[in-house]
Amino acid sequence: MNIFIKILTYSLYIMGIIWIYNIISTLYNFFFKKNTSSYYYHLNHKNNFWKKEANLFFIIVILFFSVRFFIYEPCYIMSNSMLPNLLIGDTILVNKFIYGIHHPLKNKLLIQNKIPQRGDIIVFQYPKNKKIHFIKRIIGIPGDKIIYNEYSKQIMLYTMKKGQYHLTSIIKYNFLLSPKNMLKQKTFFTNVFKTLKFLEYTEIINKRAHTILLLPEIINDHLKTYYQPNHTYYSWIIPPENYFVMGDNRDDSYDSRYWGLINKKNILGKAQYVLFNIHKEHNKWPIGISLNRIFQIIN
Predict the structure, then answer these.
(1) C-alpha dist (Å) from residue 34 to 37, 38, 41, 42, 44
(2) Are 289 and 194 within one domain?
(3) pLDDT digit string (tens) for 39-68?
(4) Collapsing DSSP states into helix, strand and coil, what is residue 39?
(5) Nearest in space to 146 (alpha carbons), one of 138, 81, 206
(6) Nearest to 202 by CA among 171, 228, 225, 232
(7) Annotated catalytic, 33?
(8) Catalytic option among 33, 51, 79, 81
(9) How many separate domains does the chain show?
(10) What is the pTM for the complete model shown?
(11) Same domain, 242 and 109
(12) Do 131 and 9 share a domain, yes or no?
């Protein structure tokens, strides 16, 4: 667990004890001291000031904890996997309440709220290392069957009806620009493919459109595919309480296609807003802020 969270938690416990002690002490002196006026008259002003400051600090800590653990949490984007929608250097706000309230120290759901939906961009604990947080888009929900075509990059979605899987939709991609305008297409570079052009496509999930990046003529075979027993490769069935996620930068994303499914209890929240973007090179100080990224809604 993050050492910062532990320090804040122990500070909260200590300040809570002090706050409760101050309340009990004040009530005791008020109701049980025979000469209350004399007591308050001779009260040490420095101690009184310290108690007020401790109470104020405790309230501030409570508010901070409530927002940080149960409502919104900032998150810094450090990879290209969600291009073009999330950029390296983006600081985003993650809604932690939308799917329910989790215990701040234990990975346990206390109160259920909404159910994660296809198309949601979520922050979650990487299944193979809970200390690492990933951000991806939900493609498959419990009960779905996903078939991914590594050549056409299309996703075939099947849902269970009356004990059998039926094809519900085929997630296709459309060019944002016509072929004659392809020279104007945006180009993105990554550490894996440094000389190839990533093309922008429109993808529609749950009647919501968003932009993704693809390498149409490239097969991403440098990573081992996640395989479910008794199923063919690039075919997965999503069991209860699990989700299938992918990055929007499809050919440069390490996601469920390679390491498997994520459990609902590992979902930390839904990415909702980009606060700002900081221009920063590796091992160097920030050099600027992108004004066009301030307070953007994440689609």
Answers:
(1) 9, 9, 13, 14, 18
(2) yes
(3) 454 445 545 656 666 667 767 777 777 777
(4) helix
(5) 138
(6) 171
(7) no
(8) 81
(9) 2
(10) 0.77
(11) yes
(12) no
Q: Are residues 200 and 272 in the same domain?
A: yes
Catalytic status, residue 161: no
Q: What's at 177, amino acid-wise? A: L
Query: Among 72, 88, 120, which residue terminates a domain?
Result: 72
Alpha carbons within 13 angstroms on the beta-carbon side of residue 256 total 27
List 38, 79, 114, 136, catalytic entry = 136
> Based on the domain organization, do 23 and 97 belong to the same domain?
no
- CATH code of the domain covering residue 266: 2.10.109.10
Q: What separation in angstroms does the CA of 1 have from each of 4, 87, 132, 173, 256?
A: 9, 26, 10, 40, 24
Tell me the per-residue pLDDT of 212-253, one tens digit each, with 9 for 90 and over. Answer: 998 877 777 778 899 999 888 899 999 999 999 999 999 999
Per the rule left: phi > 0, alpha: psi between -120 and 50, beta: everything else, 241 is left
Identify the DSSP state of 198: P
Q: Is 207 left (phi over 0), alpha (psi -120 to 50) or beta?
A: left
Q: Which domain holds residue 83?
A: 77-297
**60 and 113: one domain?**
no
The stretch 193-209 carries a mean pLDDT of 80
Mean pLDDT of 154-164: 89
Last residue of one domain, picked from the residues 54, 72, 90: 72
Side-chain-side CA neighbours of 34 within 13 Å: the count stands at 0
- The structure tokens listed for 18 are 């002090």
C-alpha span between 242 and 3 (Å, rounded): 29
User: At which residue do the structure tokens 């060019």 appear?
Assistant: 175
Token duo for residue 10: 């122990």
